[in-house]
Amino acid sequence: MKLRFDDDVEAFRAEFVAFLEANRPSLEEMAAEPSLSTGHMPGWLRRWTRTLFDHGWLVPGWPPELGGRNASSIETLVYMEELTRHRVPRHANVQGLAIIAPSIIDYGTPEQVEQYAMPILRGELTACLGMSEPGAGSDLAALSCKAVLEGDEWVISGQKVWTSGANYADFCFLFCRTDPTATKHKGISIVLVPMDAPGITVRPLPEIVHPDEPDLNEVFLDEVRVPAGNLVGGLNNGWAMANGSLAHERGMVWVTAVMGLEAAVAWLLELAPSYVAPMGPVERALAVDEIVGIAIDTEAARCLGYRGFAKLARGGTAPEQALMKLYASDCRQQVARIAAEVQGADALGIGVIPNDGQLAVDEPRGTWLEQYFQSFANTISAGTSEIQRNIIAERVLGLPRG
Amino acid sequence: MDFEFTDDQLALLDGARSVLASACPPALVRSVHDGQSGDGPAGLWSTLCELDWPGIAVAESSGGLGLGFVEAGIVTEELGRVAAPVPWISTVMQYGSVLRLSGDAARLAAVASGSVTGTFAVAEGGRWEPAAVRTTAVPAADGSGGWVLSGTKSHVLDGATAGEIAVVARAEVGLGVFAVPGGAAGLSATPIDVIDPTQPVANLRFDDVAVGADGVLVAPGDPGVDDLLARALDESTVAVTLSTVAACRTIFEMTVQYAKDREQFGRPIGSFQAVKHRLADCFLAVERASALAWFAALTIAEDDPRRSLATSMAKSAAGDCQRLLSKDGLQLHGGVGFTWEHDLHFWLKRAVAGELLFGTSTWHRARVAELLGLHMDWIGSAS
User: Is residue B288 within 8 angstroms of chain A, CB to CB?
Assistant: First the structure.
């Protein structure tokens, strides 16, 4: 146990920081052409992703041919810390980089890797993840979008919803039912579907804040035809892949969440004195208590993350990882609410962005109230907080399924 | 930040857990609660001394094991897990800390050898901040360099049984710290009949208690006294925090097991989502408090400037944790957890008592506010 990593890890950090400072896109460049969705790569970001890939800094834990440098998990952790601290994205298409490309690399054919996965890593293509449906949210295995093999083509019909980035993505990593007679977990396959294929309609779903920049979409598929060779990882093997390969870098996702939380709390602490100063003593004590509470929560999230990581690095199981999504997403919601309440009626305005540029790039942005509403994305998507509690109870604590 | 225990630390943890499983069974804790402990607790303390644990963080030159605060924390946590009725926190984590910080190698060697127990008398009138100290220290009239102490200390852990007491008292030139034997003339201890007899406290009254020059641990007027007191209080606080969270973890593990075993409506109550979600939240509370407690322990071990902030955050989180675990642990056990015969109450009481020692969550949150620059001067001094 120690507060600092070993010297060789710190040397790795210094090497990456030097690279970042010499090559990173400028804040002006980033602000001039923002990414509009997780499927949208502005020109500067395409170039930056390619630079990271070429220099082995895109996913350091991977081998050089995949844009990495065979870094250890601790080295990957300090890489994440610095990337977040410098507020530079490595890719807009987080689902493509973190889930879809690695899944294709693990389970796909060499042709699929060449045609779909590598272009994501080089910043040339983006992909969306076709999972949720109107009738299959938390119960993902209940999905009904169906794919039927006709000759050498899959014919796909159905509807997806909450599909992030589908409005800009080049292809979809689509979960569909290929055996309607099997039990629900066993009849699911994954098919790669170009988003410009005839029969696909994408309808963006403007969100409760920033409605002009939707990331979520409905995707309608009406007898969409793709080659039989677009099946990934074997027929009816989709559920196993959903539970296996989606875990790439899972031990690290908390870094961005925690550092975003730290940035938000730092901003709250900067803002707070001018708002609490005119309060009467009791009101002030009550307000300060809430601020202290979220500051403690933030420190706890950081410690929980590092502790879970330490267990994971040692090869053990890491229950903290299962807790991090539940906890960090709730904290993110709390800090926005508390900050808005500290601001009082001043928090009503929208269109002013008092803290823009203070947050990690893929964190909630805008005014505190806008961030508050936006933060529900984190407590709802990728398994709601309620689902997370079930997972903790059943898989970590070993309580019987209901 | 590397939160991984080293192999040696893991070996210490496993060894401590295994020793305590047989040396401190629930039956021993029950005997203390029943007021019929006999020689049981003394025997357990002898076992700890034979393992040289009281000297765990004492330099080898003073007869200790030469390890650090993390190792001391590991033992503290394991003792909390089994609600051990021994003067560990008072002797090792309080008195031992004061002696180490004040550089009293001789007294420290006595603690390390297990030949003396000790404690730290700082609080007065239920207030833990040194600013609240009103006990006086007056130079001895004989010019020997000794002092005379008068006043009353409250809530001294193991105060009625400690062999030696480090007493904070105020002289004209400022605060000092003095070592007073438990049986000193003019010292009277009033044990309080507390809800958790495994963590007994006493009020101590000093009526012109004479301390020789060799009993001065920190002389009044020493410019380092504020820093030393802050460090000693932080070490005490982190120790009771680790112990409290450990008691909460025991409550948690007992409750999860109960939820798996207890059947109603033809199935284990742990299969109901209302129970599952509460236990998931309990798990989060324990892990959250434990992570913060270990971060605080690390800041002490490495003398990091974040020490006081980390300590008060950890104590506050331990408070949140015991609040939830004592509530849901008892509630989910139902009627059986409400009985004296069930063991659960040993840990419920240990956890709740831990919240009230060395500053409540509220006290520590006020200190966090100060350290974060959200000054709360209208509440009074809280540093």
Answer: yes
